[in-house]
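User: What would this chain look like folded?
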Amino acid sequence: MSDAAASFRLAVYDLDRTVLRTPTFTLFLLWAAARSAPWRLLLAPVFLGLLAGHALGLYSRDALKPAAIGLMLGRRVPAERMAHLAADFAAWRVPADVQPGARAAIARDRAAGYHLLLATAAPEFYAAALAEAMGFDACIATRHRRAADGSWLAALDGTNCYGPEKARRVAEWLAADPQRAAHHMRAYSDHASDAPLFALADEAFAIGRGGRIAKAARDNGWTLTDFGTG
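Assistant: Here's the prediction, encoded as C-alpha cells.
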C-alpha cells in the first residue's frame, strides 16, 4: 500500500546482527548463568556441544532452544528473577551494542510517525526487555511456556519465531487491530531467512555490506543498507 494511502505506519526490525551487533542467545544464557547460578558455567562445554549439533543439522532450533535454556538457566525460572536478569542484560547491551546505523534508522522512523516493532527469534523473556530499553512500541519473539505461578519454563509455546513463522506472527499482529488494516510497512533484517517478512513489506532493507545478504538483496530487489556506520 502506498505511504499516502496508509493510515498506520509500521517499521519492523530484526534484533541480532540487525539492531544489535552481537547475537544475543548464547550471550544471554552464559551471562545469566554467571549471574544467577555460576556453577552452571561448568556445563558450558555441553552447551557448546548443543550449539555444534544444531550447526551440523542434527536437530532443529525448536529442539535446541529448550535444551540450552534448561541446561544454562534451569527447567523453571521464577518470573521476578527472570525480569531482573532481562532488565540488567538490556541495561548492559543496549548502550554498548546498538549499531549506529540502526540507531539512526530507528530515530528517523520514529520521527516519521512509524510504529516500531521488534520481531525476533530470541526468547520473549529477554527480547521484550531489550525492545523496551530501545524504545520499541511492541515486540514479537519466540514464545515460552509459563507455570501456574508465572515462572518461565524451558519449553517453547508454539514454534521458533524464525523465517515463515516470524512473518506469520507479524501478519497476525497486524490483523489483530482493524486500525492497522491500511498500513505501510518497512522491514529491516540482516538475513535472507526473513524473505517471507520482506514479502509482506512495502520497503525491504537488507542489512549488511556484502556476501550472501548482498546477493540476496540484488536477486530480490531489497535495498542493501549498512548499519555498521551512522
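The beta strands are 8-13, 76-77, 115-123, 138-142, 144-146, 152-156, 183-189, 203-207, 223-225. If you want, I can go into more detail on any region.
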